[in-house]
Amino acid sequence: MVFDFxxxxxxxxxxxxxxxxxxxxxTDGYAAYDQIGGPRMVHAACWSxxxxxxxxxxxxxxxxxxxxxxxxxxx
Length: 75
What we know:
Layout: H1 12-18, E1 24-27, E2 42-45, H2 47-60, H3 67-74
Parallel strand pairs: 1-2
């Protein structure tokens, strides 16, 4: 695992660091990571960012037939 810190959130830093990287890149889904890396790079989302949307749906409706089982499985 590698963590590259940049002060800004622009696309230039990730483009310079990743170049034509081919592998799995886990990010928070921020658009600056779109269209960077090599053609075989796989974008892996952050689990907590994905879970948050389902969790909020369950808070609004605890009987939500889609979100409730997904949150239970993620937990």
